[in-house]
């Protein structure tokens, strides 16, 4: 194996070994942190439990002292208030005063306070001296301990019975792991309470007296770790002395519980390190293989790098290589054909000297200026005219500089593309666009002129027919004349409505429709439109209802345009709803702040294929609709455009035979403060 390859493989092995060493060190640090966290947990928990035990013992001691001095129980602990529930800290089970013969004088917390004879308390009562009795088990099965103190007059003793199961219940609530334990025990190693149900402890509370840790005088706490002789497993824990009392609290946790998360992370880290090592090894081997190949060709690639960038020969584009001073270095066949000379006659000469490329002195000067600009390091692009076979062609010319390793421009790459067809197409498109715009302006002007011209005679027709209907200058004679006059007036008004729609549409298309915006109450506009639509609704036997909340915010809009939109939607809803149907107008402010007004009917509905076109001018859902119901198909298109001017939208949801719902929405920035029922801002 070559020395260089051996060195590289050695470096690879060292890198992978470094990965494993770092992972091992991280795992060890994580294990130490987990152990330290477990020790802190035991220390903090033991401190809390020691303080709890100390407070219970202090309260019990104060209570016992008061009972011994007074020779009786405090009055507030007698009767219903006495017992375990009223005792201090919920740990004092019973308070009692007993004679030396065991007869109970007073008590609280006993069901039948007669005598303590036959119980572990009897000996303490007979002895008449201060003592700590317990732990002992009551007849009911609970574990107890008692503090005993002689009465001041020597006639008996006072006793405070502690509920040791209370400590056991408290310890069992601590989440330290199913195989860990909390112990409260005396100086002699007898266990008073513990967090687990251990058979041996329930039978003999002194089972572990020889192995439970005790502290020398002057030491209040100690953290422990190592092998537990009772189970043969590694444990950590903290033992604390209850200040002022011969008791200890020992929080002992199995190391497996502390390191459970670390064990899972350990295998994850091992797998990650193994995966990284494999990937690094594969990549390194691949890199070494490629490096061996590249080293043999690096010098040749450096020598030919600039030539590889100069590969330019293509079948359609005109391409060439120039020196920074404009001399031709290489050309492809289309470039030679454009110049009308072979490549041998062009190479080495200035590019702007050939009339095939620059047919006038002005074009030649521009070509030279572009080459000089590109030689300074700038990308140049421009269009020019050339003549090929007597035909003038438009060429898109680009000149790009190529730099060497020192950043100096050494080669200019010239490309020319024939864009004659594209330019001609753009010119045709511009001409067609101008013609279309002119036709559109002419159409709009024609519609506006004709609409104004038709309004004048229509106003006269409507006015005179109204005079005839009211017979202002005398009777008409035959009753048929009245019918004729009514038909004339209705036809004139219908034609005027159509002309107004056409005029509005022409203004909207021409962009000359200007909004007259102001703050308004949408509820009032809805009510006004409902009143105008009520007459045709009554005639058609259609029920018209409005559902508008009183606190709807103000709206910034063109009130006339809003009424026009609402009247159009209401007119369509009433028109296409059969007798006995219902039309409902509802308004609501949506969660995003927009105001939505919906006109919903129970009419004939619209087919799905017609929904896509009914918003376009002169389009209707069915070709037979204009014959049955009238109209030009401009109403919805005008409504859509008016809402667009407000920045809003119009949407229609319908199903044949199940009615139609048309909804207009105004953007949130057009809403103001809500209006209260009294008309003042809410």
UniProtKB/TrEMBL annotation:
<dbReference type="InterPro" id="IPR004358">
    <property type="entry name" value="Sig_transdc_His_kin-like_C"/>
</dbReference>
<keyword id="KW-0812">Transmembrane</keyword>
<feature type="transmembrane region" description="Helical">
    <location>
        <begin position="270"/>
        <end position="288"/>
    </location>
</feature>
<keyword id="KW-0902">Two-component regulatory system</keyword>
<dbReference type="Pfam" id="PF00512">
    <property type="entry name" value="HisKA"/>
</dbReference>
<dbReference type="InterPro" id="IPR003661">
    <property type="entry name" value="HisK_dim/P_dom"/>
</dbReference>
<dbReference type="InterPro" id="IPR036097">
    <property type="entry name" value="HisK_dim/P_sf"/>
</dbReference>
<dbReference type="InterPro" id="IPR036890">
    <property type="entry name" value="HATPase_C_sf"/>
</dbReference>
<keyword id="KW-1133">Transmembrane helix</keyword>
<keyword id="KW-0547">Nucleotide-binding</keyword>
<dbReference type="GO" id="GO:0005886">
    <property type="term" value="C:plasma membrane"/>
</dbReference>
<dbReference type="InterPro" id="IPR000700">
    <property type="entry name" value="PAS-assoc_C"/>
</dbReference>
<dbReference type="InterPro" id="IPR035965">
    <property type="entry name" value="PAS-like_dom_sf"/>
</dbReference>
<keyword id="KW-0597">Phosphoprotein</keyword>
<feature type="transmembrane region" description="Helical">
    <location>
        <begin position="6"/>
        <end position="25"/>
    </location>
</feature>
<dbReference type="Pfam" id="PF08448">
    <property type="entry name" value="PAS_4"/>
</dbReference>
<feature type="domain" description="Histidine kinase">
    <location>
        <begin position="449"/>
        <end position="670"/>
    </location>
</feature>
<dbReference type="GO" id="GO:0005524">
    <property type="term" value="F:ATP binding"/>
</dbReference>
<keyword id="KW-0418">Kinase</keyword>
<dbReference type="InterPro" id="IPR013656">
    <property type="entry name" value="PAS_4"/>
</dbReference>
<dbReference type="InterPro" id="IPR003594">
    <property type="entry name" value="HATPase_dom"/>
</dbReference>
<dbReference type="InterPro" id="IPR000014">
    <property type="entry name" value="PAS"/>
</dbReference>
<feature type="domain" description="PAC">
    <location>
        <begin position="373"/>
        <end position="431"/>
    </location>
</feature>
<keyword id="KW-0808">Transferase</keyword>
<keyword id="KW-0067">ATP-binding</keyword>
<dbReference type="GO" id="GO:0009927">
    <property type="term" value="F:histidine phosphotransfer kinase activity"/>
</dbReference>
<dbReference type="InterPro" id="IPR005467">
    <property type="entry name" value="His_kinase_dom"/>
</dbReference>
<dbReference type="GO" id="GO:0000155">
    <property type="term" value="F:phosphorelay sensor kinase activity"/>
</dbReference>
<protein>
    <recommendedName>
        <fullName>histidine kinase</fullName>
        <ecNumber>2.7.13.3</ecNumber>
    </recommendedName>
</protein>
<dbReference type="Pfam" id="PF02518">
    <property type="entry name" value="HATPase_c"/>
</dbReference>
<keyword id="KW-0472">Membrane</keyword>
């Amino acid at each position: 194996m070559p020395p260089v390859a051996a060195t590289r493989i050695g470096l690879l092995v060292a890198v992978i070994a470094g990965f494993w060493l770092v992972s091992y060190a991280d795992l060890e640090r994580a294990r130490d942190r987990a152990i330290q966290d477990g020790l802190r947990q035991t220390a903090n928990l033991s401190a809390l439990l020691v303080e709890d035990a100390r407070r219970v013992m202090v309260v019990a001691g104060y209570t016992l002292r008061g009972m011994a001095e007074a020779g009786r129980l405090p009055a507030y602990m007698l009767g219903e208030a006495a017992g375990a529930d009223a005792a201090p800290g919920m740990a004092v089970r019973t308070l009692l005063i007993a004679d030396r013969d065991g007869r109970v004088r007073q008590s609280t917390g006993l069901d039948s306070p007669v005598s303590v004879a036959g119980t572990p308390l009897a000996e303490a009562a007979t002895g008449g001296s201060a003592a700590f009795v317990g732990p002992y088990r009551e007849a009911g099965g609970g574990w107890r301990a008692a503090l005993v103190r002689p009465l001041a007059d020597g006639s008996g003793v006072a006793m405070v019975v502690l509920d040791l199961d209370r400590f056991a219940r408290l310890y069992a609530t601590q989440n330290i792991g199913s195989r860990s334990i909390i112990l409260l025990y005396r100086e002699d190693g007898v266990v008073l309470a513990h967090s687990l149900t251990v058979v041996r402890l329930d039978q003999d509370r002194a089972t572990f007296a020889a192995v439970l840790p005790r502290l020398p005088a002057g030491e209040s706490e100690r953290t422990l770790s190592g092998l537990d002789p009772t189970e043969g497993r590694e444990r950590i824990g903290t033992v604390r002395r209850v200040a002022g009392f011969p008791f200890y609290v020992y929080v002992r946790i199995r190391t497996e519980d502390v390191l459970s998360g670390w064990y899972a992370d350990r295998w994850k880290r091992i797998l990650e390190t193994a995966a990284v090592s494999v990937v690094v090894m594969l990549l390194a081997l691949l890199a070494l293989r490629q490096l061996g190949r590249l080293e043999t060709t690096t010098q040749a690639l450096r020598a030919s790098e600039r030539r590889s960038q100069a590969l330019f020969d293509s079948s359609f584009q005109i391409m060439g290589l120039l020196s920074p001073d404009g001399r031709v270095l290489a050309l492809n066949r289309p470039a030679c054909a454009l110049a009308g000379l072979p490549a041998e006659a062009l190479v080495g000469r200035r590019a702007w000297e050939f009339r095939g490329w620059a047919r006038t002195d002005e074009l030649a000067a521009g070509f030279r200026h572009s080459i000089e600009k590109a030689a300074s390091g700038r990308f140049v692009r421009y269009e020019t005219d050339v003549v090929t076979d007597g035909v003038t062609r438009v060429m898109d010319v680009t000149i790009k500089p190529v730099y060497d390793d020192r950043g100096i421009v050494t080669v200019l790459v010239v490309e020319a593309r024939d864009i004659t067809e594209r330019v001609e197409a753009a010119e045709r498109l511009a001409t067609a666009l101008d013609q279309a715009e002119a036709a559109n302006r002419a159409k709009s002007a024609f519609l506006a002129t004709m609409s104004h011209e038709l309004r004048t005679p229509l106003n006269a027709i409507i006015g005179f027919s109204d005079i005839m209907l009211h017979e202002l200058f005398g009777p008409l004679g035959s009753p048929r004349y009245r019918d004729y006059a009514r038909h004339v007036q209705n036809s004139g008004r219908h034609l005027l409505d159509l002309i107004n729609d056409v005029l509005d549409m022409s203004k909207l298309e021409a962009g000359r429709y200007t909004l007259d915006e102001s703050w308004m109450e949408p509820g009032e506009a809805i009510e006004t439109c409902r009143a105008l639509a009520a007459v045709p609704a009554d005639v058609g036997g259609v029920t018209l209802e409005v559902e508008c909340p009183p606190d709807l915010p103000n709206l910034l809009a063109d009130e006339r345009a809003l009424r026009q939109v609402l009247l159009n939607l209401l007119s369509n809803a009433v028109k296409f709803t059969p007798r006995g149907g219902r039309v409902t107008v509802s308004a609501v402010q949506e969660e995003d702040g927009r105001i939505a007004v919906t006109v919903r009917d129970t009419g004939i509905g619209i087919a799905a294929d017609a929904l896509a076109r009914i918003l376009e001018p002169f389009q209707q859902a069915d070709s037979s609709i204009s014959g049955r119901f009238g109209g030009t198909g401009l109403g919805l298109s005008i409504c859509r455009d008016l809402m667009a001017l407000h920045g809003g939208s119009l949407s229609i949801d319908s199903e044949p035979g199940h009615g139609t719902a048309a909804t207009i929405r105004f953007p949130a920035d057009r809403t103001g403060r809500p209006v209260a029922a009294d008309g003042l801002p809410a």
